[in-house]
């Protein structure tokens, strides 16, 4: 008998799952009790896999979501699922779309996110795997008035062997630059944030309409010529 396939639309890309695999690969995330840099680092060391972290836009969204999925897919196709763990920021928005693609390709997934996400009841990506809520008074990036990474961003940078950025705002910029400064493998792919979301936010805050949608990381790299 022919095998029936389940069709799942992922941000404009069509992904095929064999019968039953959707449920197996996208169970509700497991929440880890580890909440400090040291505890999370210990967890990843025990897994014994290369940790590839994807950073980018979250709530700002992507102007071309299909291009996001295609770019992430190309990167994942170069990796060995048996030896690689895919880490992102746990929530479903923006770059969180990569979770489902990673699981469909057989990767173990994790999410590292600020405790602010739990306080605000942010929606976790169904395929996030094991999620770590880091005790943090901010969402990430630099601590106010300092050049020190927040606990969340510090954890992400420390456990990552490789950081792949597809676009990215302020937090992604700080994490990417910190990883780069530490000599970790980094890759950047330009991507516009969602234009409509950016324009709506500017209007809500009585700010001028934006004309540059490259994101803070894209702008920073363009200015540095790297």
Task: Compile the SSE list and pairings.
Blueprint: E1 6-10, E2 13-17, H1 21-25, E3 30-31, H2 37-47, E4 50-56, H3 65-76, E5 84-88, H4 98-104, E6 108-114, H5 115-119, E7 130-134, H6 151-159, E8 162-166, H7 170-181, E9 185-189, H8 195-204, H9 215-224
Parallel strand pairs: 3-7, 4-5, 4-8, 5-6, 6-7, 8-9
Antiparallel strand pairs: 1-2
Helix pairs in contact: 2-6, 6-7, 7-9
For the secondary structure, the number of strands is 9
This entry's quaternary arrangement is single chain
Strands in their spatial order, largest beta sheet = 3-7-6-5-4-8-9
Radius of gyration: 17 Å
CATH class: Alpha Beta
Helix content: 25-40%
- Sheet/helix structural class: alpha/beta
Q: Enumerate the spans where pLDDT stays under 50 for 5 or more consecutive residues.
A: 1-24
Number of helices: 9
| Shape by Cα distribution | globular
Please state the average pLDDT score.
89
Strand content: 15-25%
The N- to C-terminal Cα distance equals 54 Å
């Amino acid at each position: 008998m022919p095998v029936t396939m389940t069709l799942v639309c992922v941000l404009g890309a069509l992904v095929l799952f064999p019968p039953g695999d959707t449920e197996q690969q996208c169970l509700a995330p497991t929440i880890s009790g580890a909440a400090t840099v040291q505890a999370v680092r210990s967890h990843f060391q025990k897994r014994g896999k290369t940790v590839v972290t994807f950073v980018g836009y979250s709530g700002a969204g992507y102007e071309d979501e299909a291009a996001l999925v295609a770019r992430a897919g190309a990167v994942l196709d170069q990796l060995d699922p048996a030896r690689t763990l895919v880490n992102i920021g746990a929530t479903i928005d923006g770059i969180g779309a990569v979770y489902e693609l990673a699981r469909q390709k057989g990767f173990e997934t994790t999410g590292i996110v600020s405790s602010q996400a739990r306080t605000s009841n942010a929606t976790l990506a169904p395929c996030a795997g094991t999620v770590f809520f880091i005790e943090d008074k901010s969402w990430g990036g630099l601590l106010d008035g300092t050049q020190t990474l927040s606990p969340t961003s510090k954890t992400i940078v420390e456990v990552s062997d490789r950081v792949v950025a597809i676009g990215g705002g302020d937090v992604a910029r700080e994490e990417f630059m910190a990883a780069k400064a530490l000599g970790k493998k980094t890759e950047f792919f330009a991507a516009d944030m969602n234009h409509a979301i950016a324009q709506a936010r500017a209007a809500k805050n009585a700010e001028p309409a934006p004309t540059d949608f490259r994101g803070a990381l894209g702008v920073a790299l363009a200015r540095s010529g790297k």
